[in-house]
Structure formats: structure tokens, C-alpha cells
Write a structure and sequence with these properties.
This protein has two domains: 257 residues, Aldehyde Dehydrogenase, Chain A, domain 1 (3-Layer(aba) Sandwich), CATH 3.40.605; 191 residues, Aldehyde Dehydrogenase, Chain A, domain 2 (3-Layer(aba) Sandwich), CATH 3.40.309. It has a seven-stranded mixed β-sheet, with helices on both faces. A six-stranded mixed β-sheet has the order 8-7-6-9-10-20, with helices on both faces. By secondary structure, the chain is an alpha/beta fold. The longest helix is centred in the first third of the chain and has 22 residues. The chain is globular. 39% of the residues lie in helices and 19% in strands. It binds nicotinamide-adenine-dinucleotide (NAD). The site of nicotinamide-adenine-dinucleotide (NAD) has 32 residues, from helix 8 and helix 9. This is Gamma-aminobutyraldehyde dehydrogenase.
């Protein structure tokens, strides 16, 4: 018999942990008041994890009001005080690491080893990084640039930041949105994806338990159309920070622009993986499989288009397909599992649709189907390699967001780099070569916010993440993110102490100093 809400308590007791509701406003849990509910489903089993009341516009209003009320006090704290609070926050997250890993794996279907070794430690490290960075806001030095004035720069928080996050890395996306914002003195209302609210709520609770004041971090879990659009258009929200698809990003940009907000967009990707003919084939094939399949391919920087120089093409296709077949699909909580399901059955069907349509114009070398047997009830899809697709086909041009790698050949270096740049996206890319000049040329010519050489995927708190072209604008992580979450004020002091200043000639029509004399 189906037992709503209690199907997965041994994995993470979501129903019990969120019995007070799946909103977090002014330092405490609350219930959404939209009048509608949403059910979080374990994509590995199809079982219900949590049924909760969605946020409506009134909940967004209350969260924005709480953030607005908290803003002056939080903005007035010293960088050292914010740093202390973030250090405490990092310590609470570290204490609860296993809780976070289990909740993340349950709601996303990620293998527990990925949550434990990537999502959770990455988030703790990010929190520790911003604890340090809070004390190092940079600017140009003060000086007498005009000769008659002292100029200096103030770097100030913007106010209430309205953030919207996707479902693929819910904890890390919450951290990337919240941490630089609050380190700089802003307060935040975050709307996670309605499919994956658990770890954002745990994150906000951990902040409160670490002593971060009520209202500094608020979470509203509602739909994009209702809660999301209301947050973006809200007159008391000074900035919108959005991570998600390019299509929704365009809609968000329209609303934010109409209300003249600071806008930060982290959008879709279709990362090229360029393999030159001098490469170590084993290294490139392993890199392609790991880079394409991490998080079941639901990664905005995942390797999606491998361009392989002609002499290596056939061998690369064969070796990469063979390695894909060794990756073990299974229960995300089982020790032997490498790859979990997609986020939902809907997403699985969407991915299958791309692959099925590709059969008419390309070769599906391996995968291309959902597994049968025990895994059939989950949203699983086999790792898939597609060869010989035309450059202008949809599997090469569109973001599939699943465990699918497309491999294409190229002849000259010029052609390989031109093909790599030939999509609307520009989030990430990699170049594979043992020739330093070739690799260096690729890093210059590929238009993307990150280019790896002889690797694909690693990120680090000290370095920025963000897109070129239709992949968005602005940076997450690193000190560069403060450019998004602060505004720069120029303060200019007169040093002459004279009533009639030299430049007044432009108004008085004569030499103002002579007139004064
Ligand atoms: P999505 O665009 O469908 O949704 C993202 C968020 O926007 C969700 O919280 C959703 O509820 C909300 N939303 C939906 N419609 C909205 C609207 N009209 N107004 C306001 N908010 C709205 O994306 P997704 O399917 O959740 O995530 C996958 C996408 O995210 C992929 O395109 C992926 O590349 C992208 N992504 C980008 C990065 C990056 O750093 N560039 C990181 C992770 C994911």
C-alpha cells in the first residue's frame, strides 16, 4: 500500500523534517498559502518524498518584507562580523554534511558518493571562502585624481536580492546565490526549483542556527510562474539573480528590466570538448565519459559535443562508447552505483525524444534506451553516444540535459575551433592536446566563460563561473561575484575650500577665480 510521505524515511525523513512547512521566512519554517500543493518525488523509485504547500504571492511579499527589514542591520555589520557569522555557518554545515548529502541524493536521484564528495564539500568550502572574502572587498585606491579633490570608492550592498535556482544542483546553486550576496551585506529571498526544495530549506535553517539574523536568508518554494515572476517583479527587490534555462532567463530578464533591476543570469550550456590528434586517447576518452555523465548529464557545463580530429575519430568513438558501457546505473543510495536517474520521468522522456529523433540522421552507438527490470520504475536512461550528427542538427545545437554525448569529426585546427564556437551557448569548454601552443590557442579562441585544458568539469571557490553569449552574464563564486552583488559609489571631496572654483568658468562665462578676487 502506498503510504504518502513515508516511503523514504530511512533515506531522509523529509515529511517529519518539514512538518512545519516548506517555506522559510524571517528565521522560521512556514507553510505556503497559494492553496496548492506540490509533491517531491524520488526519481529513482517514483515514490513520494514530501508533499508541501506551495508559496503564493503573499508568501513572497512576506519574505521580501522580512529581507527588507533585516537589510539595514545586516548591511551595517562590519566585514569582520559577517565573516565570523559565515565561519560559524560553515561549521554547522560541516556538522550536518551527511544530512545534506542524503537529502540531496533523495530529491535529485544523485549517487550518494556524488553528493558526499562534490555537492556538500563544495558548498562548505564555498561558505568558508566567502567568510574570508567578506573581509576583502576591493576597489581603486583613494587619491587626488583631479588635483582639487580627494576621490574614493565605497562598495555598498544593493539591498534585497531575489534569487531563483534550478533543480540540478539545488544545494550548490542555493549557496552560489546566497553566499556572495550576504557576504557583501545584502539580504536574500531565494526561490529554489519546486522539484527540489529540501536542501535550500536545510541551508537556511543552518544559517539561522549559526546565528545569521532572521530575515537575512529567506526561502520561498513555489512555481516559477507564480512565486518566481512575483519575486522578479517585486518593487522592493533591488536585484534579480537567476540560474536556469536560457528560455526562462529571457522571460526573467524582461520582467527585471521593466522594473530596472540589477540582473545576473547564469543560463544554459552546450559545452564543446575539442580533441586534437596529438592527445592521449585514454585520457580524452575517460575525460569525455566523466564530463558527459556527471550528475547524469544534468550539468550546465557537461561535455556535450566532442569534436575529434579525424585520425582519432573512430578510435575515440569506440573507446568512449566502451567506457560508457562500464558505468553502473543503480539505486543512488547503493554503494556500487555510478549513475542515478534523471530528475523526473518527464525529463527522461524529453531526453529520449532527442535521441529517438536523432536516429533519422545520426548513429546511436551505445545507449539510447531506458533500462528494464528493477530500474524501470525510476527515471533512468542509459549513457548514450551519438556519432555522425550534422553540426546544425538539434542534438548538436540544443541543450539535452541528460547522459548523452554527441561526437563529431574535424580536419584542421581552424575547423575544430570554429565548430566549437558554433552554438548560441558559451558557458564552458575543454581543449585536449599535449601541444602547449595548440592548447593555448584554443583557450584564447573558444568563446566561453571557462576553458579547461586536458580536463573537463572541476570548479573551485576562488575562481569565477559564468557564461558568454546566450549562457548569461555575470559571475558566481570567487571575488568576481562581488561585482554582481555590490554597487560602486564614487565619493568626491573638494580640497580647495574656495567659493568660486576654477571649473565654474564654464558656467559664469569668465575666469571665476578672477571674478571672486
Ligand atoms: P528552468 O529555467 O526551467 O527553471 C529554473 C528556475 O526558474 C526554477 O526555480 C523555476 O521554478 C524558475 N522559473 C520557471 N519559470 C519561471 C518564470 N516564468 N519566472 C521566474 N522563474 C521561473 O531550469 P531548470 O530546468 O530548473 O534547470 C536546468 C537549466 O538550468 C539548464 O538550462 C541548465 O543549463 C541551467 N543551469 C545553469 C547553470 C549556470 O551556472 N549557468 C547552473 C545550473 C543549471
Amino acid at each position: 500500500m502506498h503510504n504518502p510521505g513515508n516511503a523514504t524515511p530511512d533515506r531522509f525523513p523529509a515529511q517529519e523534517r518539514f512538518e512545519e512547512g516548506a517555506q522559510f521566512i524571517a528565521g522560521r519554517p512556514a507553510r505556503g498559502t497559494s492553496g496548492r500543493t506540490h509533491t517531491v518525488v524520488d526519481p529513482a523509485s517514483g515514490e513520494e518524498v514530501l508533499r508541501y504547500e506551495l508559496a503564493g504571492t503573499d508568501d513572497v511579499d512576506r519574505a521580501v518584507a522580512a529581507a527588507r527589514e533585516a537589510f539595514p542591520g545586516w548591511a551595517a555589520t562590519t566585514p569582520g562580523e559577517r565573516s565570523d557569522a559565515l565561519h560559524r555557518f560553515a561549521a554547522v554545515l560541516a556538522d550536518r554534511a551527511e544530512d545534506f548529502a542524503r537529502a540531496e541524493s533523495l530529491q535529485c536521484g544523485k549517487p550518494l558518493k556524488l553528493s558526499r564528495e562534490f555537492d556538500v564539500p563544495g558548498t562548505i568550502d564555498n561558505t568558508a571562502f566567502f567568510a574570508g572574502a567578506a573581509r576583502h572587498l576591493q576597489g581603486q585606491s583613494a587619491g587626488e585624481y583631479s588635483g582639487d579633490h580627494t576621490s574614493y570608492i565605497r562598495r555598498e550592498p544593493i539591498g534585497v536580492v531575489g534569487s531563483i535556482a534550478p533543480w540540478n544542483y539545488p544545494l550548490q546553486m542555493a549557496a552560489w546565490k546566497v553566499l556572495p550576496a550576504i557576504a557583501a551585506g545584502n539580504t536574500v529571498v531565494l526561490k529554489p526549483a519546486e522539484l527540489t526544495p529540501l536542501t535550500s530549506l536545510l541551508f537556511a535553517q543552518a544559517a539561522t542556527d549559526a546565528g545569521i539574523p532572521d530575515g537575512v536568508i529567506n526561502i520561498v518554494t513555489g512555481t516559477g510562474r507564480e512565486a518566481g515572476e512575483h519575486l522578479v517583479g517585486h518593487p522592493d527587490v533591488a536585484m534579480t539573480s537567476f540560474t536556469g534555462s536560457t528560455a526562462v532567463g529571457k522571460r526573467v530578464a524582461e520582467i527585471a528590466t521593466a522594473t530596472v533591476k540589477r540582473l545576473h543570469l547564469e543560463l544554459g550550456g552546450k559545452a564543446p570538448f575539442v580533441v586534437f590528434d596529438d592527445v592521449d586517447l585514454e585520457a580524452a576518452a575517460h575525460g569525455a565519459v566523466a564530463g558527459a555523465l556527471i550528475n547524469t548529464g544534468q550539468d550546465c557545463t557537461a561535455a556535450t559535443r566532442a569534436y575529434v580530429q579525424r585520425p582519432l575519430y573512430d578510435a575515440f568513438v569506440e573507446r568512449t562508447a566502451g567506457l560508457m558501457e562500464t558505468v553502473r546505473l543503480g539505486d543512488p543510495f547503493a554503494a556500487g552505483t555510478d549513475l542515478g536517474p534523471l530528475i523526473s520521468h518527464g525529463q527522461r522522456d524529453r531526453v529520449a525524444g532527442f535521441v529517438d529523433r536523432a536516429r533519422a540522421y545520426a548513429r546511436v552507438v551505445t545507449g539510447g534506451e531506458a533500462p528494464e527490470g528493477e530500474l524501470a520504475k525510476g527515471a533512468y536512461y542509459r549513457p548514450t553516444l551519438i556519432a555522425d550528427a550534422p553540426q546544425d542538427s538539434e542534438v548538436v545545437q540544443s541543450e539535452i540535459f541528460g547522459p548523452v554525448l554527441v561526437v563529431l569529426p574535424f580536419d584542421t585546427d581552424d575547423e575544430g575551433l570554429a565548430l566549437a564556437n558554433d552554438t548560441p551557448y558559451g558557458l564552458a569548454a575543454s581543449a585536449w592536446s599535449r601541444d602547449v601552443y595548440r592548447a593555448n590557442r584554443a583557450t584564447r579562441e573558444i568563446k566561453a566563460g571557462c576553458v579547461w585544458v586536458n580536463d573537463h568539469i572541476p570548479i573551485i571557490s576562488e575562481m569565477p563561473h559564468g557564461g558568454y553569449k546566450s549562457s548569461g552574464c555575470g559571475k558566481d563564486m570567487s571575488a568576481y561575484s562581488f561585482e554582481e552583488y555590490t554597487q560602486i559609489k564614487h565619493v568626491m571631496f573638494d580640497n580647495t575650500a574656495v567659493a568660486a572654483k576654477d571649473w565654474h568658468r564654464t558656467v559664469f562665462g569668465t575666469d571665476s577665480r578672477l571674478q571672486a578676487a
